[in-house]
């Protein structure tokens, strides 16, 4: 089973070949003028120029060669365009074909790739904030789409669980809560209260700063009581992080942190120096990443002997490539880290660590407030993710209360599901490389380009299917396209292309925008084609219901790949 556009592409290529024209010019795409055609091909124009022929004569020959095609009618339009319009019978048959395929004609990769997606990066002992939203949602969607396409994709949270921040906390606890060095419970609430104090002291108190540095070195040397304290802090943080990630529907196969790679740093840097990849420069150990100096060197170890993110990230890659099946590593990280990842990747190339493994920085822009500036609290502080979630749930709950269509006992649960869709689609519907405005009121709307609107479309169709079933009407043979069915059929046909574009561009926004297109077309079809009204024939009702069911099935699939579930009522 293939898409309409694939079938038309094949037929067009055959016609070009039959006319003696180069088939590389036979590519078909969706029409720029849907009022005139469903698909178009501009290949007659370059052929006419190359062969010194009138492009309209070239186009007419191709039209003649495709005159008996059972799928499309073809017309030539000046100055040499080929316009294709799918026959109604072919559209009706194709909707049924899509409906019968649980994958909506999306194919699996001919060769599966092993891919690791790094899309976390939260720090131990700190709240997740709005800045962590994009990495989590984009990364999870990419992983799920890759898996749907047949690839072996896993996710790694890559926790910030090592370094000076840990030493600061240990020094603070030792000074203020020394009994905890001997054991005892530590909660995330404790850490959230203590970390700002420890960080502040480290900036203003020289004696405390030295204690923090000493604690960091002792932890890294394996001092038993410090290490046991660190383990309890890490465990409390991971439990809290998992609660937030679970709400977002984000899961990781690996909960590794920077601590995993620390024991390898001394040996790795020594080896890099011995092979000439790394060198001392004014007391610091660096890797030069460009001959012309345009890309700054990567600092592995500073002049004080402390390792930084550069060394840890190189060691992370060295560890990951121990899996011989691994082919690609995707780093879903803020675009402001672009230079850093260029340095890391170039350093790993120089060291020979990457080999045939490709490493890509999947960069994303910032989340801004309605004022166009990075999203903040009203007081100007960083917005905690839990607070943002609560605000969205409240906004959705208010709309549900106003509508009053859902029993009050169910509204809390539905509000959670709809709020999740509002946040996730609000993210995924935007190109990841661009900044976007996080508008809670807009994202919570049940109409327009929002997650709740897509959910509502599925619920609306299901409500009609249930009501029709009570009236003795069920989906049947699709006998006609119906009013608006052409736009819906062509939208459904584009699903495999949306999956392919999402993977190639590493942008789930292609799938999100496709889902909105389906919802728009399905709602248009719903409005124009009656099912339960008097005078509608059983045949037409069955055909319309089957068309809407096909749309609902594909829309639900697209939402599922974005991690969005559909409530039973809205």
Give an overview in words.
- The protein has helices at 4-18, 44-51, 55-65, 88-100, 133-148, 164-176, 188-204, 206-220, 224-248, 265-274, 309-320, 338-351, 385-403, 408-428, 440-443, 451-470, 485-493, 495-504, 509-528, 538-561, and strands at 29-30, 39-41, 72-77, 81-86, 114-118, 152-156, 278-281, 284-287, 298-301, 326-334, 358-364, 367-368, 436-437.
- Helix 5 links the parallel strand 5 and strand 6.
- It is globular and about 85 Å long.
- It contains 20 helices and 13 strands.
- The two termini are 35 Å apart.
- The strands form 4 sheets. The protein has a 4-stranded antiparallel β-sheet. Strands 6-5-10-11 form a 4-stranded parallel β-sheet, with helices on both faces. A 3-stranded antiparallel β-sheet has the order 7-8-9.
- With 570 residues, the chain is an alpha/beta fold.
- Among the domains are: 4-86, Gyrase A, domain 2 (2-Layer Sandwich), CATH 3.30.1360; 164-248, no CATH class.
